[in-house]
Structures are given as structure tokens and as C-alpha cells.
Amino acid sequence: MAKILAFVGSPRREGNSETLVAEFLKGSENAGAKTELIRLNALDIRLCQACDACAGSGFCVMRDDLRPIYAEIAAAAGLLIMTPIYFGSLSAQTKVFIDRFQCWWHAKYTFKRPFVNKEEKRPAFFMTVGAWKNKSYGQNAADIAKVYFTSINYRLTGELHYTGFDYPGSVAEAPAVLEEVYKAGKDFAREALKTYGAVHRGEE
């Protein structure tokens, strides 16, 4: 069974971002999905150098921890990206990750050989959490994420944005938020399993 991959763009462990992702994945697992949490900050991901090597092949020439991640995303049933809001947008870890998918952009638009077929309609979900009570910051981050998901042929099916959580782990004291995220994870898993099953029925 393919996994739901959850990418956490926070440098903190067990902070607000991870707390929310853990709740989301708990819901997904209770709906029958396999999941994997991936901490971007723990990976060796080099900055995109705009070398344009991928413009000639559709593949990134860098050899770092992102190489196996490309394969995991190509095989996943669904994606979740969670980022804390820093200076009104994505964390640096999340942006570096997204920028390294320029090769997938070329695979799709230049070579017409995307790593994920658009017809599969694989689902994606996006979440943010931050201290400042300014909803436009979450929307700013979401606008970037939408470009990313479109480029890799994942379909954004939902997003949640939380503000007013400053201290690490403080979101754990917000039961209504945790309940909402749990339900979102459960619903997302059902959608992912349904979509994946329709495409790959009989293969496993």
C-alpha cells in the first residue's frame, strides 16, 4: 500500500508543526492509511543552483537526501506539507524543498513526461501555524504551495491555517484545533485511498 507522506518544514521537534502533523496522521492511520513523517530540517538538501541541468533532462543532478524523496513522492498516495510561518510566509526549509522541484517542472512542461500523471488526481493537503494573527501570511504560503502542487501533478484538496500559537507545543492545549486536524487527516486518507485504489486496483 502506498503511503501518505507528511513533510514538516519546522526546525523544531515536537513543536506546534509536529503536534499538528501527528494529529493529522493519527486520523489518516485510523482511516486505514500508511503514513510517514519526514522532517525536512533533518535532511541534507542543497539549495537549487539554477544550473539548468534539469532543463536538458528533467532530472536534478544534485546528489543529496532529496534524491530518494523524489521517488517516494512519485509513488505516494497523498502528500501533506506543513510549515510554520516565518516572516509572513514559508519556513526556509520548506522553500528550499519546493525550489528543488524545478526538475519536475521541466519533466512536466518541457519534456511532457511528468513523474506523476495528472489523471490520477492524487490529493495534497497544506497546513500552516504561526504566532501572528494575520491570515494573509498563511495565504501567502499557500499560494506558493499551490504552484508546487500544480507543478508535480498533485491536487490540493484542503488547507488549514492556524494563528496565535507562539510557544513551542502550545497548540496541544487547543483541543478544538486538534479535533479539526484529526478529522481532516481522516477525511484526507479516505480520499487518498479511494483515488489510489481507483488507479492501481489489482496491482497489489
UniProtKB/TrEMBL annotation:
UniProt keyword Membrane present: yes
What keywords is this UniProt entry annotated with?
Answer: Flavoprotein, FMN, Membrane, Transmembrane, Transmembrane helix
Q: What is this protein called?
A: Flavodoxin family protein
- Which GO MF terms are attached to this record? oxidoreductase activity
Q: Which SUPFAM superfamilies match?
A: Flavoproteins (SSF52218)
Q: Does the keyword Acyltransferase apply?
A: no
Gene3D superfamilies per record:
3.40.50.360
Q: Which domain of life is it from?
A: Bacteria
Which stretches are transmembrane?
Answer: 69-87
NADPH-dependent FMN reductase-like domain ranges (all copies): 3-134
